[in-house]
Design brief:
Radius of gyration: 15 Å
Order of helices and strands: EHEEHHEEEH
Number of helices: 4
Number of strands: 6
Number of domains: 1
Shape: globular
Largest sheet: 4 strands, antiparallel
Distance between the termini: 31 Å
Length: 117
């Protein structure tokens, strides 16, 4: 029987590895969610987003390391919020979540681009 792991894309951006690979995260902003009917003030999740250009320049080293670690232990991996590799809601430091902005990568990070590297 295969072990199933659930990996949330934002979880890739937490922990010690963010500090080891600080060059791949954007500074001055955190990831969140825009205002909606359930959270009218929006959400600020308090962790830095991966910087799409720096991550690509680094050969997706951080993302690949996270996925390799999970795949060592799992027979199946479910990746939740995968769209977060392509678009993010960013909240500038010192501002409230309702003042954030949606960020779309022209050439977003995709799993195929990560594994092709």
């Amino acid at each position: 029987m295969a072990t199933i792991f659930h990996v949330c894309v934002p979880a890739l951006m937490f922990g010690v590895m963010v500090h080891w690979l600080a060059v791949t995260v954007a500074t001055g902003v955190s990831v969140g969610a825009p205002p909606d009917d359930f959270f009218r003030a929006g959400q600020d999740w308090g962790f830095p987003p991966l910087h799409p250009l720096r991550v690509r320049e680094d050969g997706y080293r951080y993302v690949r390391a996270c996925l390799r670690h999970v795949l060592r232990h799992a027979g199946v991996v479910r990746i939740d919020h995968i769209i977060g590799l392509h678009r993010r809601y960013l909240v500038p430091q010192g501002m409230t979540a309702d003042r954030g902005l949606q960020s779309f990568g022209r050439k977003g990070m995709t799993l195929s681009s990560v594994w092709a590297t």
